[in-house]
Fold each of these.
Amino acid sequence: MKITAISIFPEYFSPLELSLIGKARSQSLIVFKSINLRDFTTDNHHSVDDTPYGGGAGMVMMAEPWGQAIDSILEKDGEIDLIILTPAGSKFNQKKAEQLSGAKHLVFACGRYEGIDARVGDYYRDRKSVRVHEISIGDYVVNGGEVAALVIIEAVTRLIPGVIGNPASLDEESHNEIGALEYPTFTKPATWRDLNVPEVLLSGNHGEIQKWRQEEAKRRSELGQ
Ligand code: SAM
């Protein structure tokens, strides 16, 4: 999978050199690139923002640098999934992660300031070669789309075959079905600060262990914790 992040802080993505994603990149399962939106400006100050029409506080990111940056990607790659990060988008979840994990090239538009001129999404929504997804990572506001892109990149790329060492660990995970949470997990020692691991997990009885896990998963899911 190719992933491109467009941002005024392209260095924000250095964590993607680490851990499983770093390994997947070294194996070319993921090809990641971050590009600087300011490289697509034409003025001496490399401006990317201007005052909002209609007035109000803050600055809005201008459409043209975004248009130039996205077009430069489309010139090389005919088809993309364009993800515009915005608190006004549809809420990200595991189902969306699964859907995006089948994409060939994900392009993340990481907003700053008061966000990106709304015409950017409208313009590319009308292009056949672009699937536009306006996505929020939750009902809160962060300073920029970069951290939101990192969340989505982690959730999506771990579903790509070969990225997680043991694919079986994906089978019973939380959120595989809407609202479903995984059972609680424990490791050695069996007693830690007077707290014991549930007896059944030490019993070696796989049927009973499975039953206990299903019940615990159900209980947790019902509580939503
Ligand atoms: N004025 C905007 C509003 O109230 O909806 C918030 C702008 S926020 C300070 C700047 C950028 O951070 C946004 O353009 C978006 O890219 C990103 N962002 C902030 N919160 C987000 C969220 N919950 N989900 C996705 N992106 C978010």
Note: Residues 206-223 form the longest helix (18 residues).
Amino acid sequence: MLYYKTKEEIELIRISSLLVGKTLAEVAKHIKPGVSCIELDRIADTFIQDHGAQAAFKGYDGFPNALCVSVNAAVVHGIPGNYILKDGDIVSIDCGVLQNGFYGDSAYTFAVGNIKPEMQQLLDTTKKCLAEGIKQAVTGKRIGDIGEAVQNCAEGAGFSVVRELVGHGVGRHLHEAPEVPNYGKKGRGTLLQTGLVIAIEPMINLGKKEVIRDKDNWTIKTADGKVSAHFEHTIAVQKEKADVLSTFDYIEEVLKTK
Ligand code: MG
Ligand code: MG
């Protein structure tokens, strides 16, 4: 079942998605060597509550925290714990909020201190993959157009695309139809129509594409132990150009001052 949102509903999803961007920016201020993942989670949880919203992931299928914090070889769904970030790490912070009955969902992968050039290239490429996917998210295209664009971008740079986890519809539910894979063939899959709101979220590995689930039953990690990156925006499909409802602007303002 696909839900096409009205203009009013899209504006509500924008409010939630912008709060996610502001929350990620608040977290960004504190990302540095020496900070623990659980501290970042507390900062986000408090910030979201102070803005009259709920952390969407907390309690979702029993997930214990407000943020998914995935360090280095962790791809997504990392449980923020006592691990202390150190110079040279990369950390994906994934955040969702529920406000006014609608969800917003976005993720950003941060460098902690100085990272290896190959890791920086992975971050830059994954962000570019997201942008390439968003370019395809226009009325009349198909889900496969997004997947092919993301896959070409990642594999063209020598990286690999995680298959087991995918983007999704967003609205009154955190995860709605359709699934939005980061691989595929153009012209295939669900037709994109105006008002469809989806989260596009490339998960790109430095090494091989295979992933495993950690003993904690949540964290997805690369099978080869090499690092992985993840960027996500919530967008609304529109004619000619997607409307990007979440934003990295607040985050990048913070990063500029670091
Ligand atoms: Mg997310
Ligand atoms: Mg998502």
Note: The helical segments are 7-30, 37-50, 117-136, 143-156, 249-256.
Amino acid sequence: MRQKGIVIAIDGPAGVGKSTVGKLVASRVGYRFVSTGKMYRALAWKALEAGLSLEDDGRLVELARALRWDFPKGAGPEADVSLDGRVLALELSEERVSRASSAIAKLAGVRLFMKEMQRQAGLDGGVVMEGRDIGSNVFPDAELKIYLDASPEARARRRVGQLKEQGLPADYAEILDFIVKRDAQDSGRKNNPLKKADDAHYLDSTAISREEVVETIVGLFAAAAK
Ligand code: C5P
């Protein structure tokens, strides 16, 4: 067993609720929550600021290595991401950052840098880590692996609901199209594509609530952490 508990890996496509579910699970079991998507987003944001090509793996890795990465404690179980002392928040959910993060996530050097940082963050356990390749690549030795899925339509409907709740404009067809494209990019890439690890539990949340998903994972945790 690791020092602080087990590693719970949650992988799955964009917009499936990995962060919401992961944070709830982390709160329930008293673990930290790490969003690896945020790390890719942070580097993508910085690359856009610096005007770097999103295809230049070498320059992007140089940029990533030159930055000071910190993960200060946020309000809930999730740590914030801070680059050179600047805490990044809302800027990471901009659509241009979503697109750019998916683009740089294709690159082998960038992925290796992220993997090292993510392994450091989770090695001692006591962590819920979400992403695309946590169970298959970053922590193939995770004690509990979840692959969370939902149909693209269900994910688009939820996203529309969230945006409307925030009083923001939301176009279902546009959002569905964006989700389908990002799925194709994340699953179709050569380096560590989105895929279910052989030993991951598959949970389809299309027809069940977030609460049920959380209950199921907490149940699996109780068995895995014994
Ligand atoms: O999950 P999120 O949408 O925040 O992730 C942003 C992008 O980062 C994804 O589209 C994906 O391409 C990439 N990513 C990844 N591997 C991870 C986490 C995120 O390739 N473990």
Note: The two ends are 10 Å apart (CA to CA).
